[in-house]
């Protein structure tokens, strides 16, 4: 059995009792491992790589995507020799800001399946900046909360509670992140948890002040983040900060390319009332396995310290049931 991150499984055959069998494609992950483009290409390496993928049938040219690539290429060029400048002790004491400004990042939003993640991966894999990280936003925030808990735990206890000052764990956590990462690429930037919402302004203010550049994809425009959430008034200032440090771009071609990938002519579910339901789904799974060029085998995923057993997988494919995912106890 092998260990793998859960986001590496981009096709899931989801068998749901009583309703039917649902085919849930996460096709936007398919280009997660796009290779770095040829360094001899000078004008627009990202666009050259994009056209190469179109040429070999992996992509279909899309004017909306090509427009966004122009913005990504501009940021790519600005990041070639970029390195954040840390504040000196004197600047920190007088609360002076560095004159150097980091390149402005990109916040890319649009409907599902329009190619946002593919474009971000194309940018990330071709970017030559020394320290970069591509991560799912939810996974990133889980790690941030772990770091905050660790910092609080390591703080010495105050003996005199009457003269104790409130300790803010965000700056040291942001400093640790900034030391290891200069470019942060977030996939699926969305805010649904109040614990995340309440610290984003403080966290990203520190990250941006430390020179971090952010590229993010989302299904929502910035103004709709954490919409109707609890205590949203405390979250809203973060939106302005995000807009100040990132260009906001919309990618909405009206095409869901995930549906173009389906072997079943766009059909995303099968009803259990159909006699050959299971047979059809097995055929889809077998067909998808051919493209994976790997054996069908069980795998174990480690999620927050717990083990999730997946009995039927093939590289990035998972064949499972609603009961297995949502009803069984995870050890």
Automatic annotation (TrEMBL):
Highest taxon of source: Eukaryota
Keyword Lipid biosynthesis appears in the UniProt entry: no
Xref: Gene3D superfamilies: P-loop containing nucleotide triphosphate hydrolases
Record's GO cellular component terms: mitochondrion
Keywords annotated in UniProt: ATP-binding, Nucleotide-binding
Record GO terms (molecular function): ATP binding; ATP hydrolysis activity
Entry-linked InterPro entries: ATPase_AFG1-like, P-loop_NTPase
Entry keyword Chloroplast: no
SUPFAM superfamilies: P-loop containing nucleoside triphosphate hydrolases (SSF52540)
PANTHER family registered for this protein in UniProt: AFG1-LIKE ATPASE, ATPASE N2B
Entry's family note: Belongs to the AFG1 ATPase family.
Protein's name in the database: AFG1-like ATPase
Originating species: Octopus vulgaris
